[in-house]
Amino acid sequence: MPYLFNTPEQQQEMLQAIGVDSLEALFATIPAELRLNRPLDIPPALTEMELQAHVSQLAAKNVGPGSRVCMLGGGAYDHFIPAAVDEIARRGEFYTAYTPYQAEASQGSLQTFFEFQSLICQLTGMDVSNASLYEGGTSVSEAAFMAMRVTNRHDRVVLLGSLHPEYLQIVETYLTHLNCEVVVVPCDNGCVDPADVDAAMNDQTACLVIQHPNFFGTLEEAEQLTEIAHKYGALAVVSYDPISLGILTRPGDYGADIAIAEGQSLGTPLQFGGPYLGLFSCSEKFVRKMPGRLIGQTVDRNGKRCFVLNLQAREQHIRRDKATSNICSNQGLIAIRAAVYLSLVGKQGIREVAELSCQKAHYAAEQLSQIEGIDLMFPDRAFFKEFVVSCSEGADYLLRKARQAGFDLGPELSRFEFKNGAETYRTGVLVAITEQRTREEIDRLVTALKA
Amino acid sequence: MRNQLATELLFSLSQPGRRGALYPAADVPVKPLEELIPKSALATEPTGLPEVTESDVIRHFVNLSTLNMCVDTHFYPLGSCTMKYNPKRHERLASLPGIVDLHPYQNPSDLQGMFELLYETQEMLAEISGLPAVSLQPAAGAQGEFTALLTAKAYFEDRGEKRTKVLFPNSAHGTNPASAAIAGFDCVQLASSKAGLVDLEDLKAHLDDQTAVFMVTNPNTLGLFEKDIKQIAQMVHDAGGLVYIDGANMNAILGITRPGDFGGDMMHYNVHKTFTGPHGAGGPGSGPIAVRDFLAEFLPGPVIKRNETASADEDRYVLEMPAKSIGRVRTFYGNIGILVRGYLYLRTLGAKGLKAVSENAVLNANYLKAILKDVLPVPNGDLCMHEFVASASKIKSQNGITAMDIAKRLLDFGFHAPTVYFPLVVPEAIMVEPTETESKETLDAFAEALRTILKEDPAFLHLAPHSTNICRPDEVVAARNPILQCCEPQ
Question: Which of A128, A176, A191, A296 has its CA 20 to 30 A from that of A445?
Fold first, then answer.
């Protein structure tokens, strides 16, 4: 047993101090008929050496970016992670600490989260950020709940059909059982038509949820859409790509009331879909209605600047069933990764990552669309780092051919159910290009697909 | 010692032109951005991110990290949180290529090793709980609660029943009522008995045909096993309701007793607690749920299935959406990085090791309770499980020393504070959970520190801690005029 300390002799001493004669006797309060009278049926224990061999074997059964070039997107991206991010995240002082309830023992976490909040505000142009939610999808439902509290409209939300289909499913899971109508604006050509959005809105709608760039990678008429939301007294909720803000206008600049995002791109490895990072920021006037932990600056009894968990009266451990959210554990360590990442890339780096991704994606789109049988699905739409191609031979053919040549593209749109989406989506395949991809890789893919 | 710069805000270290990360020039033909993106969508100003070097960043965050207490450096007996040792092999192995770099939308044939690992995790969680169907999706315990409650709701609706109430004792974690509320249930809080257990009379009085779920933590938040749990479950079942076990305290009963065997229909695990996640300064967690067979078809999807009859060219492990699934509760498949660590932990310990974990967790808690009983009385229960809740109310009435004073002063002695003022049913609560990964020597030293503290001048304790870099932050000022970021909005 590698993680237990007490020797049998010590255990005896301890039992004596307690006044019982065996370990077994410690469990006397559990009725005998409820006791498990056999060993658990789970695989035998492994030493560290055996465990490493075993897990290495499992890992070898997977095919990862080590042997395949990753051009997969759909909400999780292969951006570069500087070594310093891992270095900080692997400090035991951070990853083996608890939620910073005891401020004097947690100033490291508290200041880091306060800086994380500040960095997110600088990135998005929003007034306040919380200290993280689970991931991009549940951030949408938390935003919808908050919009209901702010507007006191509990029966209706409107979402663009160009939102990530999994985000849509999550919102449906969270809201429909509460008799809240989830209206999805049709999106049949890679972008929604603002006129359709206007038609879907009414004065009972709590919020309009916009994704920009959207699930297909294309840019929406973001400012026009937030104006439509406001026209009906609804909150404009924007799901953004944090990397895109290196070159695109910030949600705070085009009227977002709540800005949310999947923050994985900011220094967190793909790790098969989680843990990732829910980013949640909003206008200052809504701060007391926000979900999740907030870190605030204050002074200690000697007047020294310090940081604490703030406005805890919103949270479940104080307010219980009246809390703004049930969230307790958040994504602390992933928020620390994002804080380190944003600090490292800084003002100039975030612009370069965004611009490189954008330029290379456009080169890839141009090259791929010159292949016979492959077209951009939305050739007239502006995009950032991700786009949809369609293949005359079908999506599976394209994916298989790319895989054989050592490339992972996708996800294929046929994985998802698109409500109100065009049937033609079924032949589409997303392609995401980050700053890590090279011209040589793109050219090699094009050559292979031409063959 | 740290100089002044060590705790400056990162933004104040910024100097125009400093760089922490450099990127190569584009290797593709570059076009003016205005040709690629409509001008209206392009930012006219750069972001307000700081400009610092890599060494600035490292020195800054490393210095900040040293202001934390953590399990690697300190005894951290935070009740209800299971602050056990976090094995280092987990960090190495969870970062292996082929584990850490997998994209969630890769082809399933390329993910068979990962699926196998997750499938085996499902199987082990089912066996440990005695509940056969598992969903790995929930991101944390609270989301596990919410997910299970929605699963129950779907089950009742499928049976044509509309049940509106969720019941829980007043010792429950705050997440229980909060999750029930967002799942659309009416919350009914029950009294606890004098012994600190579920009050059977009060339960009986509130059970009716509107009762959907009774949520109970077992062992409960007082560190006591609900000895009448079988009868409680029977009462709930007789009323047509389901029993939810909040698994926050599973560390006490691994291989000893199982929620499925003592009447639970659904439960969540806290992988970041029981299976040493780690805690990550507040997260990420992982809150998989396990439920009875008849609830399996309502679980959120996808779940991982093993195809026993797969031919050589077919995938053995596949993703499946349960037939009447409540849908998705999060993107992708779960907090996989934490689940991988949980898997590694279970494979390191095996059945014998897991049982030893609980035996030693319970031994350590009872030992600490015993050697402190003359100075720090525990109002409820004789033997505790993995934690105990003492009360400082007598001490407070005698000399004005509060639970908070004791907690803060412990920091000066190099011990993290226990949880204080929870559960709400114990006045001046001090909730101590030593975990199994602490030695007798550590427990003795902690007890000695507490004894010393209780002899100190109350006025001195009111001002504690005295050795940390800050002391007693003003939370009222913080809440009145919230400062939540360091920059003026631009």
Answer: A191
A369 and A238 share one domain = no
Distance from the Cα of A385 to chain B's closest Cα (Å) equals 11
Mutant choice from B109, B275, B331 vs A, greatest count of A C-beta within 10 A: B331
Domain-embedded: residue A41:
no
**pLDDT, tens digit (0-9, with 9 covering 90-100), for A430-440:** 999 999 999 99
How many Cα atoms sit within 13 Å of B283 on the Cβ side? Answer: 32
Which CATH number goes with the domain that contains A246? 3.40.640.10
Residue A420 has a pLDDT of 59
Strand partners, A305: A299
Pairing of strands A207-211, A235-240: parallel
Same domain, B140 and B27: no
**CB within 8 Å: B47 and A33:** no
Residues A291, A387, single domain; the answer is: no
- At residue A227, the 3 state secondary structure works out as helix
A370 and B CB contact within 8 Å: no
Q: Is A53 on the interface with B (CB under 8 A)?
A: no
Please give the single-letter amino acid code of residue A230. Answer: H
Question: Residue A320 has which token pair?
Answer: 């219980």
**Window A:133-162, CB contacts with B under 8 Å:** 134-138, 145
Q: Where does B99-197 have alpha helices with state H?
A: 112-129, 141-158, 175-182
Say whether both A352 and A330 belong to one domain. no
CA distance A199 to chain B (A): 24
Q: Which residues of A touch B23 (CB under 8 A)?
A: 349, 352-353, 356, 435
Considering the domain architecture, whether residues B367 and B342 belong to the same structural domain is answered as no
Residue B341 has pLDDT above 90, yes or no: yes
Residue A332 to residue B281, Cβ atoms within 8 A:
yes
Q: Look at residue A419 in the predicted model and tell me its pLDDT.
A: 67
CA distance B242 to chain A (A): 19
Reduced to 3 states, what is the DSSP secondary structure of residue B290?
A: strand
Report the relative pairing of strands B266-268 and B242-246 from DSSP bridges. parallel
Q: pLDDT value at position A307?
A: 97
